[in-house]
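Quick check before the chapter quiz. The format below is the same one you will see on the exam, so make sure you can read both the input and the output lines.
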Amino acid sequence: MKVNFVTCWQCIPVIGGLSAMLMISQAIATNSTLVFESCRIDDLPSAVQCAMVEAPLAPSDNRSIRVQVVRLPALTRNPMPDPVVLLAGGPGQAASQLGRLTLALNALRRERDVLLIDQRGTGRSQSLDCKLPSEDDPLPDLLAGRLLPEGAKHCFDTLRDVAGYYATHDYIRDLELVRQRLGIRQFNLWGGSYGTRVVQEYLRLHPERVRTAVMDGVVPPDVRLTIDIAGNNEARMASIVADCQRSPTCRAAYPRLQQTMANLPQRLNQSPLPVDQPHPWRATRLMGRFGHAGLAASLGAMLYQPETQAWVPRLLHLAGQGEVAPLLAAYSQLSQQMGEQVNSLLYFAVACVEDGVVDGVPPNRLHLFSPMQSMAREVCQAWRLPAKPLSGMVKSNVPTLLLSGGLDPVTPPAYANRVAQGLVNRYQLLAPQLGHVISPNRCIPRVIHEFIRDAKAGQVAKECELQLKTMPPLPFFVSDKEARP
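Here is the expected output.
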């Protein structure tokens, strides 16, 4: 069972699809010092190959952890020697949970193996976790006004001795160890969300080991995960409300949405709404009080993709009228999906170490998502982990593809623009009407395949860029059953 915080900020969405897989029926010995065995991971219809690598907890520590490596073999007898490594987001998502993404990017396997190397603390790589008496359901804590679940601080105490060894540079040491054990000279790196930060640090520390790099939902090294992401959520929320007011049908349905967004957080902070309703997915009643933190967590979860952003004006309008059941139902479903994908403990173990001191929110500067910053401050103060900030912006001449969604609430296109300044050999692709992590969508998988195959963007990228520019925006819902432009 995971410690499930009120929300998580950076997660990678994945999609379904069909793919051909190689079936392995027995242990496979390779030229490397690792032995891969047939195994299964979620969302893939056929078996893949798995191995475990013993890695030191820290360079000067005699303790060790086990890191899982999943290999999807190339669909050719003569694969290229430089595999593609998919680096998951979070921080706190296991790469072995990217099964659906590998289906979307299956063309990569025409020439190369694909490797999923779990970040330490995720998946089967010695998960950083606690067993808590509370069930894995965020709603009771949310309606009790608790930013942290019961037992979380005791959990921090039990893990403090090792939690400081799960940061980005520790992950990179594991990746290098896997590369050496496999006898591979270079990787092709794909990173999504937090995985882009790992790509950048790998480029900084081991540039000669990277043939190409793809970064989707770019996180610059100086971005504070505990603070800056809340500000990005705020900006995306303001854009949604402004877009609604520019739409005649949305403005007619919700004429006071701007005032609701401005006033509701303070109103709920002073007088939380009483809740007594059936639980959205359990045969129990849900009772408590819906306050400012509940509004921030539930609306924040709706911002990651355009399909859920389309509901935001309606759910905000209903909450302003005191009707929060639809918002709680949506949050319950989305947070459950996020909780299954992202280890919140590891998220904050990395974020607190790399962000350092987390500022509080002055009372006169409260905004919609300020409870998330307050929660981050509370978590980091409870962790009391030594700060290990990352260095400045990365400079590299490795061929790099930067992908951004124009509707991304956590890693806006401006982040990619900043990182691009240090990348000499880069190509940027913007999808104005897509959200956070766009690799599985539309023509983008073909762009990624072309870029990694040729180490440059070509005709496919140019054609895709034109297609993405002509995508129409999704209409907002003006009732429970109808969306109109």
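If your answer matched, good. Residues 28-224+392-469 form a domain with the Rossmann fold fold (CATH 3.40.50.1820).
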